[in-house]
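User: I'm new to structure prediction. If I give you an amino acid sequence, what do you actually give back? Let's try with this one:
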Amino acid sequence: MFEKEFDIASLIIARQKAELSNADMQKLDKWLAEDPANRAAFEEWGEQNALQLKLSKFNAIDEQAGWNKVKAGIDGKVIKKSIPLWPRILVAAAAIAFMIAGVYFYRSQTKPAPESYYVNDVKPGTVGATLTLSNGKKIRLSGTANGKLAEESGIVVKKTADGQLVYEATGSPADPNKINTLTTAKGETYVLTLPDKSKVWLNAASSLTYVASLRERGRRVVRLSGEGYFEVSRDKDHPFVVESKGQQVEVLGTHFNINSYPDEPVARTTLIEGSVKVSAGGSSAALLKPEQQASIQNGKVMVADVNPDLYVAWKNNNFVFEKNDIRYIMRQLERWYNVEVIYESVPTEKFWGSVSKFDNISSVLNILESAGGVRFKLQGQKLYVNKN
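Assistant: Good question. You get back a string of structure tokens that encode the predicted 3D arrangement of the chain. For your 388 residues, that looks like this:
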């Protein structure tokens, strides 16, 4: 029953989770273009997400699991219990399949924000960055052709067909004075592969500075401003060091995330796997285990157990909020959508929920408004925030 609809529902769920392949994206786009009703059903799923967030804010926070999905069933009843991942996906897919088939249950319960609030919409950010070479030359990576971009200090710099920046050693002597910087503006993100095959995902409004050969005095050293996710190749003879906002993170081979934006109150290092040593000015240090986070407060390293998925969601093209205040959320939107946030009054509520970073800003605002306590007005690139 509803086999085609169930297949489309699975694609929609994969898109929401940013796990859609290029082939499946084309399949979904084709289905959306076939009939205006298909687009309406797709948008209805966004409204359904908003309703779930509104309910979850009051009823469905599961501290142990991190998330307690609230699913409004086909009969309109609210189910409030945690269920394993696959049954949850099947329930969601079945609900969307019925919705696509023409059974709409939520229009009367979930209302979009008044049109007057949104004079316009703002599209999501894109893949892009600027590479600054040691001679001062700047290369806009979003507008340049694939292939070799530069060669210096025994390193060839290439842009790959999938839009990534790759450094490859040629075997020639390295020059420690050849400094490169990769910078993302607001609304940009980029992936970089360093000469040692370590990979860095750079979030919006961030920069990474490094010697082209990566080596400094027997160590692999990079300097980060903003946010980056690191997958470091193991090399026991050459520790990998990230310097950022008053802290130093040293590793041999591991996966971790660093958030060190200048406008964030503290720098946070979140460990996914392996181990890292976090130091603050040489006076305080801590060794992290997976699912731990270090924050620098008053020159000291503070360690806490966390759900790391919340802190790497951006790398997987999602916004994820868990008991976050509006200012924290707005800082993320400022960077990704390149908007100016203006507070006419400041809501005091905390917010939970998730939304794809592929969506326009209106999708995020609608979900937040549906949770209650806040309302927005978007005019050009200015986003006005008010208590509800």
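You can read the tokens as a compact description of the fold. Here is one thing that stands out. The radius of gyration is 23 Å.
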